[in-house]
Amino acid sequence: MLKIEIITDRDILHYVLEKLSSIEGIEDITVIPSENIKPKKDKMFDTTNTANIEFIVDKSKIDNILHLL
Question: What would be the CATH architecture of the domain defined by 2-67?
């Protein structure tokens, strides 16, 4: 069993979850909202809304996940 973490843009979160749920052997998907912050000059920041998706999967399913994403 492997723990996988995927960081994705929130705009495609629903799509990624839908695809992951179609793979047998993936259970208990955890989604953690996050924000990517990149410092800029003059005390400005560039932010991107992201989501961390974590799940545990059998090693034999890794190829399916990579092909899917």
Answer: 2-Layer Sandwich (3.30)
